[in-house]
Structure formats: structure tokens, C-alpha cells
Amino acid sequence: METVIAFIVIFGTLVAFHEFGHFLFAKKAGIMVREFAIGMGPKILAVRKGETQYTIRLLPLGGYVRMAGEDFDTVELQPGYRVGLLLNAQDEIEKIYLNRNVSNPNILNVEVEKSDLDKELYIEGYDEDGQLVHLKISRTAMIIEKGQETLIAPYDRQFESKSLGSRALAIFAGPLFNFILAFFIFLALGLMNGVPTNEPIISEVKPDTPAEMAGMKKDDLVTAVDGKSIDSWLKFSEAIQKSAGVPMSIEVDRAGKQVILDVVPDTVEDAGQEFGQIGVMYSSPLEKGFIKSIVFGAEQTYTWTVKIFELLGMLVTGQFTIDALSGPVGIYKATEEVAQHGIFNLMNWGAVLSINLGIMNLLPLPALDGGRLLFFLFEGLRGKPIDKQKEGMVHFVGIMLLMVLMLVVTWNDIQRFFF
């Protein structure tokens, strides 16, 4: 149960922050946001505030922000269609009933001759006396069908009416907020837990290893490798890993005295790659400080972003197969393992997942934010948008392919963890 709660909280937070990015920039651009949803599937909870409905849905595997003008959002009234109209004090239409039999004496029944619910905002048609009427529609009018109320969206409040830059920012803001969330999580970790100094200090020397045979001892501070200055454990570790089987000269500070040690790293193979190892452990002391925490947050966000892009490059170049990918089941199992090591490790895992979600959504694939941004790029180069039906078909095919990929990855996870 603890794992379930941790998974829902982490994934829900990542999705909520991602969608909040879309929501915030859409609102800033003047786009009407019809729904802000966390989760997918049937609604569990729905609250309307202003023009936006905020919903929590059953499956904690995603979310969305539904903007006016997207996905055939607009309503068209065909000639001959009968509607019920309720007028306000200014004789503007404030409610449009699409149900034919509505028991309200104040409703004006009209057979539509022509209408425009986007730009000019009017309905023209014949009333019950056969008189031709032309009525303006209020900008806050509601369309009511089978008890469901939908606020109309004047064209200037629709997604497509905005400039290319505003639309691109509204889409890009989702992944951007995942990187921002990761930064703040790392920042919080630095403030609460402290920031590793990253000094290359040896905390343990394992027996019968190259380090022990060379005379390396606990509390040695590494200052140089092969004459090159070393100021962090990361640089020291990278130097060792790149020198499998190659003799090295390591200079250490031992209680104020400079000692030079000759070491030949063992060769270790993992995932088809060879790297060096000398048998030392590292335990960095932690320091607290607001500025240090800010720097730590930025460095960790950058480091993990680079690492994930490197892994994507390895996938593209075939250095590992699709079997190495994980879906929701794999993320759940990893969360279960991380949760056993405390809240700080769980927070770190959430930050890494947030960066991963941001990068995945920026990939130029149909149905993802990156795919939509790619179409915006084409629009900018062409000087006009791609045909919406063609773009919609591309995104539909992309969704189908992503679903197939998700099924394959999930099946691999199930086999890996349960069989």
C-alpha cells in the first residue's frame, strides 16, 4: 500500500505540474481552458471554477488540459435545426438548448436558418410565428444538451486564433515545467539533506583490490591522476573508468603529506562495455546552504538531462534494445525499491522521473508535445498552418503506435518482474 501511495503521489505530481504548465501559458495567452484533468478514464471528482472544470480521473497514468477550439470542440448549427433560446436583459442569447422539448415559458424556439457561434456570434432563424429573427449571442452563453452545459468559445478565445509563438509556448510549457519541478525537488533536497561536497576523499578501501595493493588508505584525498589535477569525485571516477588495465599514477594528500601511488585498474565488463575499477568507496560529507542548494539543483537537473539524452542516443544507435525500456509497471517496481531507502531517495527518484517525462514529451513524435511543436515549426517555415485534418490523422496514427509500444513495454515489464 505504501508503494501504491508513493507511485500515485509521484506520478500525479509530475503530471499535475506538466499540465499546469500548459494551463498557465494557455490562460496567459487568453485561451479558454475547458478542463484541467489529472488522470485518465472516468471522473472521480469534478469541480467547476469559472470557465474551467477541474477533474480527477480514475487511472493515475496521465492527464490533459482541454483548450477551446481543439479536437472538434466547436458546435455548428445546421440550417433547419430547431433550438430553444433563453435571452438575457440585453436581448442576447445566454442559453442555447439543443434538446427540442424544454419546458420553460421564457424559451424562444427557433428553426435555424444560419448561425455563427465563433466569430460573429449570432443565430438567425424563424420563430414559432414564422417571423425571421436575428439574435446576438452573449460571449458567455451556454450550450445545453442532455443536461450538459458547455460554455461557447468566441474565436478570439480559441487555441487556433492565437499567434504561432503563443501556441508554441502553451505546448512547450508542459515539458518546461517538468524541468522546473525537478530543479525545485533537487533544491529542496539540498536544503533539507545537505549538498554533497563531491571532494575525492576515500572512505573505504576494499581488500584484495588494486587500491589496497597500491597502498591507498581511508581518508586519502585524491589531488591528481597522471599529473592532471582532480577536484571532484566525479572526475576521479571517470579517470579510473577510462583506464581499464592501464597503469596510473595517483597523487593523494595523506594528513598533509603528498603521496604518489601506482595503480592498475581491474577491467570490469557490464552491458558489453569495459571500464576500470580499483576498489575504493566514496562517502561525501554534506553541507547546507541556500546558494549551494540552488547550484546543486541546477547541476543535478543538467546532469540528469544529459544522461537521459545519452541513453536515448544509445537506443537510437542500437546499443540497447526495446527490451531495456520500462513502462508504468517498471516505474512502479522501481518506485517500490526506491521507497525502501527513505523519503530523500524517493524525492530524488521523482525529480529524475520528472526530467524523463519532460524529455519524452519533447521528442518530435506525433501525439506528443514535441510532435505538435514540429508542426508549428513547419507552419513557421511555410507561412501557413498544415491542414488540420492531415495533422489530426498524423497524430491519430501516432497515438496508435504509442499505444502499441506501451503494450509491448508493459508486457516486457510483466514478464521481467513477475515471471
Automatic annotation (TrEMBL):
Its cofactor is Zn(2+). The keyword Repeat does not apply. It is a multi-pass membrane protein. Keywords: Hydrolase, Membrane, Metal-binding, Metalloprotease, Protease, Transmembrane, Transmembrane helix, Zinc. Its main location: membrane. Its EC number is 3.4.24.-. It is found in: Membrane. The chain crosses the membrane at residues 6-25, 168-192, 392-411. It holds the Pfam family Peptidase_M50. One of its GO terms (molecular function) is metallopeptidase activity. The keyword Protein transport does not apply. Gene3D superfamilies: 2.30.42.10. Belongs to the peptidase M50B family. This is Zinc metalloprotease. It comes from Sporosarcina ureae.
